[in-house]
Amino acid sequence: MTEDQVSEKLTYYEAVGRRKNATARVRLYVAKEESAVINGVTVAKGDCIVNGIPAEKYFPGEVAKKVYLEPFRTTNTIGRFVTSILLTGGGHAGQLGATVHGIARALEKTDKEKFRPILKKRGFMTRDSRKKQRIKAGFAHKSRARKQSPKR
Prior knowledge:
By secondary structure, this protein is an alpha+beta fold. It has helices at residues 55-58, 62-75, 92-110, 112-122; strands at 12-19, 22-30, 35-38, 41-44, 48-50, 53-54, 81-88.
């Protein structure tokens, strides 16, 4: 390995968040300097990277930004960590919910006694297990739809 590939080992807290069919693997890196090198990309302290791209581009809009930063705002830790998230499955709404759940679970690992009651009270620690109902065999195209019976 060359010198470029070897980077300082950063300490991080890892957690998995889920919502619908989406899964988010979240890592909160504790950066000692103002920037850190994660997977060959230099990231500033307080930034959030989702699947290799900035979270502002992955989740566009002010509402989405407010949603995924809410666990940090609740625990008063904005700008303290560099966040790296790997998302798989689901749609944008499910992935956003999985991201919030994963960030909350990772923040809980940083300081359990201090952050867990706050995050639990706000509902970030609860996994929303509602999924789309599967399609039953022999029925119409939806999960509860029935085939139409002939009139004559």
